[in-house]
Design goal:
The complex is a heterotrimer of chains A (153), B (344) and C (651). Chain A has 153 residues and is of the alpha/beta class. Chain A contains 5 helices and 4 strands; from the N terminus they run αβαβαβαβα. Chain A has one domain: Rossmann fold (3-Layer(aba) Sandwich). A 4-stranded parallel beta sheet of chain A has the order 2-1-3-4, sandwiched between helices. In chain C, a hairpin with a 2-residue loop joins strand 11 and strand 12. In chain C, helix 6 crosses helix 7 and helix 6 runs parallel beside helix 14. Classes of the chains: A alpha/beta (153), B alpha/beta (344), C alpha/beta (651).
Chain lengths: 153, 344, 651
């Protein structure tokens, strides 16, 4: 028989491990397809990252990244097709240049450099997708909550 | 040495011949030694133009303002404008041309080389003089300034009171010009390019955030940085709705569907989003005229954000804002060999 | 603005989703969303009853938008969008929340998976609240086809399309069609004469009323998109009027310039004015302007003087032609990997070391030696010949990583042809392994070994060099016996790797279609779209897409033709309406989107960006580039992404 007073008595002192919240902008053609493949292959990874499908990594505006951090994301991932594989031929090249600068800027003001990541994940790389998310969640757990850009509302 | 008479004669000539409707330049101001921007429309006014190390402003801003005025006017006057431009100012004109903000023939660039020096940083002068203000600041030879004070004159090596941006300047003569006065001059060896940004990067992550948290925390969101920037000419700034253009065709839905990327309240986080957005939107467009930093009432080192990105643009993408009109802008171009190793 | 009425449909997918995600709770919680007026869950939403319930719910509740929380949109987005259409609302107001592949299948913890499914579904609801009911864009099509490349692939594709009644423009950069196949002597596995089977097809091309042949021509620029391409073709001058030319050969007799004959791979010579080979189509002479002394009667002018028909015209100019076509087939073929890259085999400088195509010309009755196998250095019959396979292929460290696929077979053929020409000669083949998949191929190789007594040595040749007594010493290993082998051969034939032709690289650039890591044209999908390029309306055929033999090339060419015919069987094409849209009030005409657009779909008009909706593929690179948020992709707007971020972060 469970006793409610007992259950509350056991847990409270252990500090709760931080459950990071990650936003993953992923392109429709490669990375989303890759995460579908991870699903079809039943490769398990943590549920902390929520995907937002975009047409191409090239459409990811720096505003999306800043906004996600502002709304409290612990980590932001932008993922697209490998160079040369872009469904739209070169969208990912524009993304690469633009988001390189975003990353440098975030690092410059002292945001933990790991919190913004980019990766190339093809439709065939279900395993890689799961790995990238797992690594990200692990690292964000270690870093703890992102408070620097999060709105204090 | 640049002779101010040359600039005056040039301006008078342009106005006399009707080649331009007005000339943007500097005149004696009301705040001590400091020059102030002016627009002259008559050849007779040309004599009021000055050229000295207090000509801080980037006058390209007023080209933008005129363009906006003409766009709103029922009878737009698109005759060319003359502009007195330092190296950085002419790069600003170049970026505006690159972005089709106006046509080449609509602007007459009266280029002025900063030669061995540049403009002063009033804050440095105030520190040097312990609060006293000079009544006159003049160029003095190749690398010095002459300050006139109540008690007499003093010679100051330029590097002691030069604006930071001038210390790091790599192109002190206006490359884009219709006429240029003064000796051509490139890098002057005061400080290595991007010196300040590199130094800031030397600090640890914790130190960097401590500094920037302090800066963002101080920000009043007065938007002086945005108002003074010739590149911040967007009809509506993405981070702020006060400049939202409402036109007859603006639908109720559009008004309702404005995106609030950040709140207007000057919190650390919101100000951070504002400044980061501004920095990234200026990537490949900022010409390092230093105006944003100069006008900041709370002394946020805004130049750093921009020059850091310009440093990356230069070192990683071999891109320099305002150097090549025919080039596609930094973020609307790429090279196959752009850095890739940061991507997992 | 009236409030949206969104319906949410949560699929259990049997137990696929329901086992991990609390579907009841998901459906329940979604009703908290402001725009949601209806929510249900069902065991198989994609089943007939499931689909019908969606349609019914849309009608009963006057829904204007739908979110289906189910499997990947790749599987059932179309299904449910069709349902929306059937219920009388636009399919573009239906969005899928992928809670199976991207949630239920990859997480075990029910609580966590449910939370994530809620976030995914909520973000889809917030997105769909701003979706517009869009209509597909109808694009009229030009029912003409361009085929680039006049080898067997291009010839076959052109004939198939033309026979179906569509007009074809066949563009070939050389002065004649025929391609590499025409250089071959006999073809495996039947050893029938290559020219005998190809020439009739070439003649058919030249006589076909639906085929417009443009030889000595190159595609320089392509604009437009599927259904309506505009192709700029440069026709180089041949300086000979094919209509007037009587093929008398008088001009060749007087031409003083001698250059290597590329049709015979340099084994013979030709004059500056020449006909590539007797059966050339079009049957006419070409004056090679690079070799000619100068197109000037003062410098030379002999050919013009001698031509009784007056067919030679030194004033002929290059001509630029614009062709409007609805589809393009790229069949630009292969080149052999250059011998100069092979230092270990003498870098092409050792005499009597030939490549496969040169050997074909030696065996060919129309070739350099009129069908007698004579080695080039002294025109003697070679008694010992070494054939080396996989030269440049399957060598990722130094050369090409891939298998060139046809070399095992053509080497076997070469060995047999040699033995048929020189019955008392000895043929050695160095191989890594024999790949003889194909109808009758394995039997063919066996006959090479058994009937024609070719000596197959399993191993690689490490190097070769010329000896003093005029032999080519081949040093290799026989890995089966473990012994080093040294053969003093009279002649060596290298089975060089196939690589995409130079024209292929050029065509890919001009057509803006992708290439794979080896430079071959990239297909849209390696299995399911093997003849489509990534650009709609552009199809691939032949060795430009990857190494392949004649039967495979012909199949692929016919497949590409079939795809083109299917595409052009309609009068209009439907184009996705999820294209970029400019907010004019915010556009300053800075042209950054124009530079960034991969499809040249944006241009400046009166100082504002304007999107060509037919060219726009909706990638949004423009939106990601614009600093003023003045351009957005319909139904994937910045407002929508912002709403999704808020939904996920619990705002």
């Amino acid at each position: 028989m469970s006793n409610p007073s007992q259950t509350t008595a056991t847990a409270p002192t252990a500090p709760q491990e931080h459950e990071p919240r990650i936003v993953a902008f992923q392109c429709k053609w490669c990375t989303s397809a890759g995460s579908d493949l991870a699903g079809v292959s039943r490769i398990q990874y943590p549920a902390n990252a929520v995907p937002i499908q975009v047409m191409c990594s090239g459409m990811v505006s720096p505003m999306y990244v800043l906004s996600a951090f502002n709304k409290g994301a612990d980590g932001v991932l932008v993922s697209g097709c490998h160079p040369g594989d872009c469904h739209y031929m070169k969208g990912n090249f524009f993304a690469r240049r633009k988001l390189y600068l975003v990353q440098k800027l975030l690092q410059f003001i002292g945001l933990e450099s790991d919190r913004f990541r980019m990766s190339w994940i093809s439709a065939a790389e279900g395993t890689k997708y799961a790995q990238v998310i797992s690594d990200f969640v692990r690292d964000m757990k270690a870093l703890g909550p992102q408070r620097k850009l999060k709105a204090k509302r | 040495m640049v002779k101010v008479e040359d600039i005056q004669q040039c301006a008078a000539g342009l106005l006399e011949k009707g080649q331009v409707k007005s000339v943007l330049g500097f005149r004696r101001g009301t705040a001590g030694a400091m020059a102030e921007p002016c627009t002259i429309t008559e050849a007779a006014e040309a004599g009021t133009l000055v050229w000295d190390p207090t000509c801080l402003n980037n006058l390209a801003l007023y080209l933008v303002k005129d363009r906006k005025q003409q766009a709103a006017s029922k009878t737009p006057d698109i005759r060319p404008i003359g502009i007195v431009a330092k190296g950085c100012d002419s790069r600003a004109v170049a970026v505006l041309l690159q972005e089709n903000y106006f046509k080449r023939e609509e602007v007459f660039v009266i280029g002025v080389s900063c030669e061995g020096t540049g403009v002063i940083d009033p804050k440095k002068v105030a520190t040097l003089l312990k609060g006293r203000s000079p009544s006159r600041v003049e160029f003095d030879g190749a690398d010095g300034f002459k300050l006139t004070l109540r008690g007499g004159e003093m010679q100051v090596p330029a590097r002691e009171i030069l604006a930071d941006r001038c210390l790091e300047c790599r192109a002190a003569s206006p490359a884009l010009n219709d006429v240029v006065f003064g000796e051509p001059s490139g890098e002057r060896g005061y400080a290595t390019p991007f010196h300040a940004a590199k130094e800031a990067l030397g600090a640890s992550e914790t130190e960097r955030w401590a500094a920037w948290e302090h800066h963002f925390d101080r920000c009043l969101r007065c938007f002086a940085c945005r108002s003074v920037c010739p590149m911040c000419y967007c009809p509506e700034c993405v981070v702020d709705s006060t400049s939202f253009v409402i036109e007859p065709q603006t639908s109720a839905e559009e008004k309702a569907n404005r995106i609030k990327w950040c709140e207007r309240s000057p919190n650390t986080s919101e100000s951070a989003v504002y400044h980061l957005t501004r920095a990234i939107h200026l990537a490949g467009r900022c010409v390092d005229c230093g105006e944003c930093e100069r006008v900041c009432p709370v002394n946020i080192p805004l130049r750093l954000l921009n020059t850091m990105l310009e440093m990356e643009a230069f070192e990683m993408f071999h891109y320099q804002a305002g150097h090549d009109l025919s080039q596609a802008s930094l973020l609307s171009s790429f090279r196959d060999e752009d850095p890739n190793s940061f991507i997992r | 603005m009236t409030k949206k009425r969104t319906g949410v449909f949560v699929c259990h997918c049997g137990n696929n989703i329901a086992a991990t995600v609390d579907v009841k709770r998901l459906a329940e919680e979604m009703t908290d969303e402001e725009t949601v007026v209806y929510s249900q869950d069902y065991v198989y939403m994609c089943s007939d009853p499931g689909q019908n319930s969606v349609i019914q719910a849309i009608k009963d509740n006057q829904l204007d938008s739908v979110v289906v929380s189910c499997c990947s949109p790749n599987l059932h987005e179309k299904t449910f969008r069709d349902n929306a259409e059937r219920a009388g609302i636009s399919g573009f107001t239906c969005e899928i929340a992928n809670i199976r592949e991207q949630c239920a299948w990859v997480h075990k913890n029910r609580e966590e998976a449910t939370e994530k499914a809620i976030k995914i579904s909520r973000s889809a609801i917030r997105r769909v609240a701003h979706n517009k009911a869009l209509d597909p864009i109808a694009v009229p099509v030009t029912r003409r086809v361009m085929v680039i490349g006049g080898g067997i692939a291009g010839i076959q594709a052109a004939l198939d399309v033309a026979n179906a009644g569509l007009e074809v423009i066949l563009v070939e950069k050389l002065a004649t069609i025929g391609g590499h196949m025409l250089q071959l002597s006999e073809t495996f596995p039947t050893l029938d004469c290559s020219q005998c089977i190809l020439s009739p097809k070439m003649v058919e091309v030249s006589r076909h009323p639906n085929i417009k042949l443009m030889t000595y021509s190159e595609v320089q620029d392509v604009s437009g998109s599927v259904g309506n391409f505009r192709v700029k073709v440069l026709q180089k001058p041949t300086y000979v009027d094919p209509e007037a030319c009587k093929l008398c050969d008088d001009c060749v007799q007087v031409c003083p310039v001698v250059v290597p004959n590329e049709h015979d791979l340099g084994l013979t010579a030709r004059r500056a004015i020449h006909i590539p080979f007797a059966q050339a189509i079009p049957a006419s002479y070409t004056l090679d302007v690079d070799a000619c002394l100068g197109l000037n009667p003062i410098r030379c002018g002999k050919c013009k003087d001698v031509c009784e028909a007056g067919a030679i015209n030194y004033d002929m100019q290059p001509r630029t032609v614009f062709e409007e076509v609805g589809a393009i087939i790229v069949a630009t073929g292969f080149d052999l990997y250059g011998q100069e890259n092979l230092g270990e085999y003498g870098a092409g400088k050792v005499e009597d070391v030939l490549d496969g195509l040169q050997f074909e010309r030696l065996c060919s009755a129309s070739g350099a030696t009129k069908g007698h196998v004579l080695r080039p250095s002294d025109h003697k019959v070679p008694k010992e010949v070494v054939f080396i396979q996989c030269v440049g292929s399957r060598d990722p460290a130094q050369h090409c990583a891939y298998c060139s696929k046809i070399c095992c077979m053509y080497t076997a053929k070469h060995a047999r042809l040699y033995k048929h020409h020189v019955p008392d000669g000895r043929a050695y083949v160095f191989y890594i392994d024999i790949r003889s998949g194909g109808k009758g191929y394995e039997e063919f190789v066996q006959r090479t070994m058994e009937d024609d007594e070719t000596i197959y040595l399993r191993g690689r040749v490490s190097k070769l060099h010329r000896t003093r007594d005029g032999k080519v010493r081949v040093l290799g290993t026989d890995t089966l016996t473990g012994q080093n082998v040294e053969i003093d051969a009279d002649m060596v034939v290298l089975a060089l790797a196939m690589q995409p032709s130079k024209g292929t690289e050029q065509a890919a650039k001009v057509l803006k279609i992708g290439r794979d890591k080896d430079g071959f044209l990239a297909e849209a999908h390696p299995k399911l779209k093997p003849v489509e390029s990534v650009t709609a309306g552009i199809y691939l055929a032949g060795a430009a897409q990857g190494p392949k033999d004649i039967p495979e090339t012909v199949s692929q060419a016919s497949a590409a033709a079939c795809k083109v015919l299917a595409l052009l069987s309609q009068d209009t094409l439907s184009h996705a309406p999820t294209v970029a849209k400019v907010r004019e009030s915010h556009c300053t005409g800075c042209e950054m989107c124009v530079d960034a657009c991969p499809y040249q779909a944006i241009r400046l008009l009166n100082g504002k960006a304007v999107v060509n909706e037919v060219l726009c593929e909706g990638c949004g690179t423009c939106a990601g580039t614009c600093v003023r948020a003045a351009i957005d992709v319909k139904n994937v707007t910045q407002l929508q992404i912002h709403a999704m971020i808020s939904a996920i972060m619990g705002g």
